[in-house]
Amino acid sequence: MKLGGDGDVERVRAVRAAARLIIDAQESWSKAQLRAFMPALVDCRVGLIEQPLPADADDALARLEGPILLCADESCRTVADLDRLDGKYEAITIKLDKAGGLTEALALAAVAKRRGLRIMVGGAIGTSLGIAPALLVAQGAEIVDLDGPLHLASDRVPGLRYEGSTIRPAEPNLWGGPG
Known about the structure:
Layout: H1 8-15, E1 21-24, H2 31-43, E2 46-50, E3 69-72, H3 82-85, E4 91-95, H4 96-99, H5 102-114, E5 118-122, H6 128-131, H7 134-138, E6 143-145, E7 161-163, E8 166-168
Parallel strand pairs: 1-2, 2-3, 3-4, 4-5, 5-6
Antiparallel strand pairs: 7-8
């Protein structure tokens, strides 16, 4: 659930379902808003807040304890960012395009796990060809948000097959080879 500032708590309440909610504040909150919203978000059973503050305001999260996991998105691109984020987040979102490719995304996942961070794998809206490599990173993730091809008017053929919340492995010809 993507959010953007005033009225966010009301929006969360409006869509609250039986499952744990994951919300993305998209760098739009201040530290004061985060503190003010926290009790209501706990009542709404939010389990994770992705990038609550602007990436350049991460220091405000140091030693900020709360019942909801905080997840770095824009603040964490590569392994080099992890030292700066220590003690500020409990989870990170890994996106291949943000990391610079599959190799760095896999390295980021491995180092983050060794440091005890939880892993979410995401991706932009794009074709199955752009999303398929992220399935390798997703194998070790707790949260997977790789529905980009589902938001397109049409995807490439063949594309990834989505069955409910399951993504089936890519067919060999997804990569351009013979079918």
